[in-house]
Amino acid sequence: MPGAGEVLALVRSGRATTRGDVLEVTGLSRMTVAGRIDALLAAGLLVENGTDRVTGGRRPRRLEFNTEHAHVVAAAVDTTHSTVAVTDLAGRILDEVRVQVAVADGPERTLRALTDAATALLERTGVPRAHVGGMGISVPGPVDPDTGRPSQPPIMPGWDAYPVPEHLHDALGVPVLVANDADAAALGEQRTGYPASRSLCLVKVSTGIGTGIVIGGQVYRGVDGGSGDIGHVRLAGHDDALCQCGGHGCLAAVASGRAVARSLTALGTPAASGSDVGALLAAGDADAARLTQAAGRVIGEVMATVVCLLNPGEVVIGGALASAPLLAGVRETLYPRSLPRATRHLTIHGAALGEDAGVVGLAAMVVEREYSAAAVDALLGA
């Protein structure tokens, strides 16, 4: 029999917005539905207000998930910096700050900087620690879905199997969820711009390259968190390109922000990372635009295989290099190298949320875990 947690899940998903909807969807008795909803209202998980539609008689009151029931701390870690934010349960950002810390500094220094930033943000926003429902952190590497620990991340020295969730839980005293950065950004873009999408791929092109895959509204992580790691697909004819993972010919070694930065430096324009290239693109640097478009063409070749395999409706391009030149380059090769049937309903867009995509996606992940049907039933039972 559906419990209160499943009723809340129906409301959160939009499948039920009134008591009558819950009756119809669940088949429960009117008394049982009333009990479930009253328990959720008493716990502050639901609000019931306003009107929905006129039915000729009494207007039903609308049920809504209480997005102010708690807050989420989200930390999107990139290779050269991080963004830390406080959001409500709908993913709306109350406040955020950019933290200048690099993953190469190691997990202890990075996590200490994130903890300090989160503590300062909570004080600034007036959110008490007891009102934080959870923290989400994304990292630029694979994450083991069972342990929440980085799993052999190619560009994160010293992070492999580091107990990130335990470290942050000890520091902040809240439940912690760890995700891959492209996965989090993909979910953020999907929930915000493409809520009806059945299959979406986000390609994050920054200092490295990764892909987040959202199928049926859920992130696809693979058997051990390694899905979407296209940055380490080996390319023929590029055996001289050394990747940070130690291999040669990886896509990231040829077309990432780091690769473009290296080419720009050789031309006399100093650049060290994807963020540096992004700044040059924003300033209208012609060499940065030309090299970024060339990188996009290489990425498009690899993404053609992904598109033929997954048949997504949307490919979203994000990261520091997301720009008109990169989009143009991807389109130049992706369409000709893909089956027409695989691309006839495909759209390719730049990420709408920018660096906030990861924060919004992390908030959604935390809410889905901490307010799942099982979690809510356990909360109400306690």
Provide a descriptive summary of the structure in words.
- This protein is α/β, with parallel strands linked by helices and 382 residues long.
- It folds into three domains: 4-65, Winged helix-like DNA-binding domain superfamily/Winged helix DNA-binding domain (Arc Repressor Mutant, subunit A); 71-181 and 358-369, Nucleotidyltransferase, domain 5 (2-Layer Sandwich); 185-357, 2-Layer Sandwich (Nucleotidyltransferase, domain 5).
- Helix content is 43%, strand content 17%.
- It contains 14 helices and twelve strands.
- It has helices at residues 4-13, 19-26, 30-42, 107-125, 164-172, 181-193, 251-255, 257-266, 274-282, 286-310, 324-337, 340-343, 356-370, 373-381; strands at 46-49, 62-65, 71-77, 82-87, 93-99, 132-139, 176-180, 199-205, 209-215, 218-219, 314-318, 347-350.
- The strands form three sheets. It has a five-stranded mixed sheet, sandwiched between helices. A five-stranded mixed sheet has the order 10-9-8-11-12, sandwiched between helices. Strands 1-2 form a two-stranded antiparallel ribbon.
- Strand 6, helix 5 (164-172) and strand 7 form a beta-alpha-beta unit.
- Helix 1 (4-13) packs across helix 3 and helix 6 (181-193) crosses helix 13.
- The longest helix is centred in the C-terminal third of the chain and has 25 residues, at 286-310.
- The protein is globular and about 70 Å long.
- The protein starts with a helix and ends with a helix.
Order of helices and strands: HHHEEEEEHEHEHEEEHHHHEHHEHH
Which superfamily, in CATH terms, is the homologous superfamily of the largest domain?
ATPase, nucleotide binding domain
Q: Assess the beta-strand content as a share of residues.
A: 15-25%
Largest sheet: 5 strands, mixed
Overall SS class: alpha/beta
- Please give the radius of gyration in angstroms: 22 Å
Mean pLDDT: 94
Task: Report the count of strand segments.
Answer: 12
